[in-house]
Amino acid sequence: MTEPSTTHISPAHTTTDAASALTWRGGRLYRHGAPHRVLSGALHYFRVHPDLWRDRIRRLADLGLNTVDTYVAWNFHQPREDRAPRFDGWRDVERFVRTAGEEGLDVIVRPGPYICAEWSNGGLPSWLTGRDVAVRSSDPAFTSAVDAWFDELVPRLAALQTAEGGPVVAVQVENEFGSFGDDHAYLRRLRRALTSRGIRELLFTADGPTELMLDGGTLPGTLTAVTLGSKPEAARRLLAARRPDEPFLVAEFWNGWFDHWGKRHHVRGVESAVDTLRGILADGGSVSVYMAHGGTNFGLWAGANDDAGRLRPVVTSYDSDAPIAEDGTLTDKFFAVREALGAVGPLRSPARLPTLPPARVPLVHRSDLLAGLRAVPAPTSTAPRPASFERLGLDAGMVLHTARPRVPAGEHRLLLTDVRDRALVFADGALLGMADADAPELVVRGTGDVVRLDVLVENLGRVNYGPGIGGHKGLLGPVLVDRRIVQGWDSTPLALQEWSGGELAEAVAAGPASTRAGFAVARFDVGTPADTFLALPGSARGLVWVNGFLLGRHWEIGPQVTLYCPAPLLRPGGNTVTVLELERLGGVLELRDRPELGPPEEYVEEFD
To answer: Where is the Beta-galactosidase galactose-binding domain (predicted)?
Structure first.
């Protein structure tokens, strides 16, 4: 059942616990009893190198913010079910929270378990969504897994609440659930899951400012926040009609937007963004700027959108046209937002961090694609049909499928009936072409003998928003030669996101190189490590590692041209860039001192 649109919340239900830092009454927000306004900025620890966390947090403080908010990406901490969640190194969310507190900022935590965030699978582990499970619902198959995850995560967050001397002042219940479903029993269960594990600070939900979304995603007794890119006055009126006692809190103000491969680079004009921000702040409104600093979808963590059945993968950069750019640069939007927030005084952070000087480095082709991939040991599954990523326990990367059908003499139709998302198809080692949902058909020439058929399937990103969350990857439908199904497949998972120096060395050593695709290496020396931006002119599509760290995906269709390489990934002396090129390798790696994210397009997300 849905919550009545005229629900009134009495003062007795305005806080989770008497010790909570944030409370409200009479439409106003208070911090430990004093009038307060949350001025927050989104910054995700999983999108920023941990050696740069403090730098980026200080830049948020320089922006005039008093709070930082972050999602917690479950799949980042526990990519495999058979391994315990990790909270060390880059995954040390507790250190991130403590660092924010040391810099004088409050912290809002948004633990999901679903986060969207243009992050792979919306933060849900693919080992969970690969099952027959109703995600984001009261399905015990889903909630039991969430309980186990929250048993690990939530006590760590509870120990960092203000009541315990930490900086955490608020925790979000789920994330924009009203855009997805209406299972209020699930939301109530999540709220209990938080409080029963020690959360005593302010709890809130966040949804788009429409009746439909608020009906689906809000809970009596829990503060209602909204997410928006424009029209704050309309959102304020809607919330005032539904929750007259509650303060106006915009949990996400979209002052920029993310990008998809093959589209233009989304930007939000400074004047447009600041005008909307001023409308939010009017009459004591509180805000979280999304993103204040976007960071990078390192590795293969970028998500995707499902656009009427067409996959729209998100690019490696998550710059989001934020006030603090992907590399930490303070933009024109930064200074305009800072003025709107009323910040004064000197900046602690430089406007821009040092960069390496521009350079061009030879990119040397070392091994061909299939030979390089096969050189890295991996278990192979044999079955009548191709194994999906999920059957192989693979979250991201590629799968190499091999079959040996007998093909009669002459040309025949080769049809991949359901490939998710993109496949390179080879016959006896020769490339036949590329297949995807838009072009699933190729031609194979037979002689009457057995043909070795190799299909290299690439996952371009798991859907992070809407009913497509949890969709499977791989060769999901039969492969046909004319009308006959090809049976008997060897399926080898290529866990590229887990590769490091050892695997890359094996792949590179599998030469010689005789085709246009495969593994290539560029080497350069550095005196003092500094930021740089990598470009691959002449190369078509593939992946880039820096000193064994998977930086991300490159693709000539843009809009993104350069990949941001932060200084901590480099070392004094020799550095190695390894490129896995899937289509056409260029001959040079460029180190640039400025990003190139593509031709801009003004974009503002609005709700009708």
So the answer is: 521-575
Helices (H), 490-573: 501-508
Average pLDDT, the chain: 96
Q: What is the pLDDT of residue 19?
A: 78
Written as one letter, the residue type at 399 is: V
Closest CA to 519 of 373, 387, 346, 329: 373
Burial class of residue 344, CB neighbours in 10 A (0-12, 13-18, 19+): exposed
**DSSP structural state of residue 510:** T
443 and 521 housed in the same domain: no
Which pairs from 79-84 meet CB under 8 Å and 24+ separation?
79/125, 79/127, 79/395, 79/497, 80/127, 80/393, 81/125, 81/127, 81/128, 84/152
Supply the pLDDT for residue 11.
32
| pLDDT, tens only, 62-112 | 999 999 999 999 999 999 999 999 999 999 999 999 999 999 999 999 999
Token pair 């995954």 in the structure block, residue: 91
Average of pLDDT values for 463-478? 97
Total domains, the chain: 3
- Alpha helix (H) ranges present in 197-356? 211-217, 232-242, 270-281, 332-341
User: Position of tokens 């590399």?
Assistant: 327
In a domain, 346, yes or no: no
Q: Which of 3, 118, 174, 176 is catalytic?
A: 176
Cis peptide before 559 (omega within 30 of 0): yes
**Active-site residue, selected from the candidate residues 118, 201, 246, 252:** 252
Give the separation between CA 596 and CA 438, rounded to whole angstroms.
Answer: 29
Please determine, for residue 399, whether its predicted confidence score (pLDDT) is greater than 90: yes
Task: Please write the tens of the pLDDT for every residue from 524-578.
Answer: 999 999 999 999 999 999 999 999 999 999 999 999 999 999 999 999 999 999 9
What pLDDT, on the 0 to 100 scale, is given for residue 4?
30
Whether residue 598 lies inside any domain: the answer is no
Q: Which residues contact 1 (CB under 8 A, 6 or more apart)?
A: 184
Q: Where in the sequence is the domain holding 559, given as residue range(s)?
A: 359-368+499-592
pLDDT of 14: 42
Longest CA–CA separation in the chain, Å = 83
596 catalytic per annotation: no
DSSP, res 498: G
Phi-psi bin for 150: left (phi > 0), alpha (psi -120 to 50), beta? alpha
Residue 228 banded pLDDT, cuts 50, 70, 90: very high
Could you give phi then psi for residue 340, rounded to 5 degrees?
-65, -30
Specify the CATH number for the domain of residue 583: 2.60.120.260
User: In terms of domains, do 124 and 209 share one?
Assistant: yes
Reply yes or no on whether 176 is catalytic. Answer: yes
Examine residue 603 and state whether it is found in any structural domain, yes or no: no
What letter does residue 556 receive in the DSSP assignment? T
Q: Model confidence over 113-133: pLDDT tens digits?
A: 999 999 999 999 999 999 999
Distance, in Å, from the CA atom of 43 to the CA atom of 289, rounded to the nearest integer, reads 9
Residue 146, helix vs strand vs coil: helix
Model pLDDT for residues 300-326, shown as the tens digit of each residue? 999 999 998 899 999 999 999 999 999
Q: Of 227, 126, 139, 155, which Cα lies nearest the Cα of 189? A: 139
